[in-house]
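Q: Please design a sequence for this.
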């Protein structure tokens, strides 16, 4: 058992380094682009991959490789921001609901139930449609509809932690609710939430790419919007959609592997024993 946990932590560190390397790469990837990602050159339109354009060009003559590199930042960090915002909203509501109990718990959980009554992606499309196209609006729409699972998870752990003897002792000592939440409840409840968040990175990537594909996300060089722009050329110039799709696929796989490694190393079932 000890050997397996050690191996799980080592695996997590390897994927964590790969994850951080990907994030750092996305920060500078636009500077590595061989061409201007938004430069329209109709004379080079639908150019197949060669030495000058390693991944070919799209229908407007824009370099596919340059657009993938330029879009890495928005695609990857949009996914991270969606998860972070969803976790923040969900954790805050879950902690208040679980610790306060009573009527506050009832009201907040009924709000969660209302959100859960709608398919997440459909609700996100509706919110993004009302806000209008744009990467920021897409991130907000997905975060505003994706917090519910974090709220339920946090609440369940807070309800259990609230019954622990050390929490009851702090209450008897006259400690404020805010102090107890920050010093005892939050550190013990956040661990499984972080594990869940890493597992949801890949779905966040696919969701923001899906909104961009529908025209509700970024209109610039973003992987989902590249797929949308190139779908009419799929049979003529398959490289227009092949390479953006491969970029999404590879990053999603890395996110999945990273999330699985975090789950194996930080098993939420062990959290309550700490």
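A: Design:
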């Amino acid at each position: 058992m000890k050997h397996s946990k050690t191996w799980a932590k080592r695996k997590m560190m390897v994927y964590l380094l790969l994850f951080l390397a990907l994030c750092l790469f996305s920060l500078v990837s636009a500077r590595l682009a061989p061409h201007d990602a938004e430069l329209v050159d109709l004379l080079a339109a639908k150019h197949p991959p060669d030495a000058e354009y390693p991944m070919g060009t799209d229908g407007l003559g824009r370099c596919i490789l340059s657009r993938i590199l330029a879009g890495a930042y928005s695609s990857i960090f949009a996914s991270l921001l969606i998860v972070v915002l969803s976790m923040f909203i969900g954790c805050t509501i879950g902690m208040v609901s679980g610790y306060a109990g009573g009527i506050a718990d009832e009201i907040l959980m009924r709000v969660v139930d209302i959100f859960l009554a709608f398919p997440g992606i459909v609700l996100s499309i509706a919110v993004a449609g009302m806000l209008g196209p744009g990467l920021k609006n897409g991130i907000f729409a997905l975060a505003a509809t994706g917090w519910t699972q974090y709220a339920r998870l946090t609440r369940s752990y807070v309800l259990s932690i609230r019954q622990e003897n050390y929490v009851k002792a702090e209450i008897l000592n006259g400690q404020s609710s805010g102090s107890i939440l920050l010093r005892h409840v939050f550190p013990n409840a956040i661990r499984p939430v972080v594990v869940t968040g890493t597992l949801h990175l890949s779905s966040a990537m696919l969701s923001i790419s899906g909104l961009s594909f529908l025209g509700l996300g970024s209109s610039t060089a973003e992987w989902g919007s590249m797929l949308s722009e190139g779908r009419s050329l799929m049979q003529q110039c398959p490289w227009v959609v092949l390479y953006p799709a491969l970029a999404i696929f590879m990053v999603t796989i890395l996110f999945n592997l990273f999330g699985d490694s975090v789950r194996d190393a930080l098993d939420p079932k062990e959290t309550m024993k700490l």
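Q: Thanks. Anything notable?
A: Residues 64-100 form the longest helix (37 residues). The mean pLDDT is 87.
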